[in-house]
Amino acid sequence: MNRLSPDGGGDDGNDGSESLASPLLLPQRSLINSTSQVALVGANVCPIESLDYEIAENDVFKQDWRSRGKKQMFQYLFMKWSLCFLVGLIVSVIGFFNNLAVENIAGLKFVVTSNMMLAGRFKMAFFVFSASNLVLTLFATLITAFIAPAAAGSGIPEVVGSISAVSASLVVGKAGPMVHTGACVASLLGQGGSKKYGLTWKWLRFFKNDRDRRDLVTCGSAAGIAAAFRAPVGGVLFALEEMASWYGWLTILIMLLWRSALLWRSFFATAVVAIVLRALIDVCLSGKCGLFGKGGLIMFDVYSASITYHLTDVPSVLLLGVMGGILGSFYNFLLEKVLRMYNFINEKGTVYKILLACLISLFTSCLLFGVPWLGSCQPCPPDALEACPTIGRSGNYKKFQCSSGHYNDLASLIFNTNDDAIRNLFSRNTDSEFHASSVLVFFLICCVLSILSYGIVAPVGLFVPVIVTGASYGRFVGMLFGGRPHSSLNHGLYAVLGAASFLGGSMRMTVSLCVILLELTNNLLLLPLIMLVLLISKTVADAFNGNIYDLIMKAKGFPYLVAHTEPYMRQLTVADVLSGPLWTFHGVEKVGTIVHVLRITKHNGFPVVDECSQDDSRVLYGLILRAHLVELLKRKDGFMSTSAESRGGGVEFSAADFAKRGSGTRDTIDDLEISAEEMEMYVDLHPFTNASPYTVVETMSLAKALVLFRQLGLRHLLVIPKITNRSPVVGILTRHDFMPEHVLGLHPLLFRSRWKRLRLQVPRTFSIF
Asked: Model-level pTM?
């Protein structure tokens, strides 16, 4: 094995532990990247690893690719579309039964509680309400904490836990869990078969690589959003704008041109979701689904009639956008602080996680049951579209403590499911249905409870709570500015625009949010106003902090690369952030050396260098993956007695031997049994080495390298020297090397002085070099 010294020289010895331990890089460079990997919920997660999206173009791969005929290509394309169809079908069924269960469980709880209140048994009603919420929350917490701590696996704990959490009257949503459920379903279907369960069909083996699995997971995420909101086009845009880890906002258009096939497959999956949901909803409209009715799947069809607005309405819409940006950024600030506080509690153990969730449930029940007593009783409107007050069933006009013929407007918002509350706020021709004080109280309660509920150990989402919070804020603003002469904006339309502004201020997405809201309200005439408030709220909020997803990923320590480059990256070169030591292999390497390096390091890629017999110089041959080395050592077919034997060790291997397994257990170096005699043998690495890895020169700016690394979806980026007479490779850049915590940790003076000044002078742009 070849070690590179700081001056570019090398040591050709293959033995000796002392030389093996010599570091590669300069002494002042950090040897460890200590980016935090602690999850906010205290889950015992594994260190985050990138995936190998880049195709390893070694001799084995090329031989397999040349051997594929038209039949194999047809099988490959057919399986891609078939799996997308299955993803859409399964996710749509899961989404339907998810909503069906929530509507029936939560509806039954509200019906029983309301019947007890009609009988004057208020204490018993509160006990039943709080106890049922506590049991449902406890169940969601237990199934998450013990069965799926990271909400991973098959997705079944995610679905069941989400049903329990949403039915427990927590101010949480099911959109986030549905996205994860869709990703889980896609991940399971894309495992490429399983020897354990006898799924060894050759057609499935095409998907034993990270690139195809990533594309299928993207389709699953889009299907999850489509199933949660019945928004197929919005689901596709959401997956492209937010879910694809290495696609930036301004690179969406480029991605569409590069990967148009992925766009069509995602659209196909969401179209399947829309068709299946439509068919299932038609069955439920006949009354065969219990309490599940029009309020089941989220579809706020409240503006099917034509609406008009004028130039005089623009100032109030602008105000909505500005206030939504300010409130959304402040909401993110509070949520981040609460999540960090929860982290300290959850780190104490599982018992503390469960106790925290139970306390939040009890506090929520007390607030939801107690606050409506402060509301006033309103006479039922004569033109109500449903029975008023609601008695003996789930409905929107809650009688609560009021007398006959009256309803409690505050209870109609609080003592209800989130979907029905949003529908009440969005509804038109209801300007006199709610008092401004009731809407303001509801807005404050939604803010507090959604922030407190999101950090518990349960599958919970944030999309619906942000919508209901923004809708209440928008309706309150509409009550303050509504009723002006020459204004045609009613309170329901203000609620829609308020939800859009709050979503833009918190989540900072624009295109996908705009389309999702249009699909939710079923009216294209709202497009100009929604676009306006989204753009304004996002612009205002960006001046204060990042979007909520970026803040959470940063707090969890996920090595997520943002779409833009920071100004300080233009002052640094890639050589300034390299960390070591770096280990390289010869083209023909000793087995004992490979085993030793794999045992003392956790690196996933190693440069392979060759010696030139003419001038004793060394050249970079390529990059070999850790998984491929482990497979070579496991098979032992390519072992040679001497290093002088001819190449050709790869003829006994096929691409299927190096295909990446699914999410099951993988072989590690510690699982291999290699004798002392085999340790002295050699193996030819050339046929298994990617001979064309991506490389950059050591003088390239860090900003330019980040753009290249992110847009190509790389895991390793080799750094080569500027001067040709030096060592053939200087180091390897990985995702962690671009993280601000790592870069500013190596250069603290840049953070303390020049970086602060540059952030005030240089705008944060999405510049592409």
From this structure: 0.81
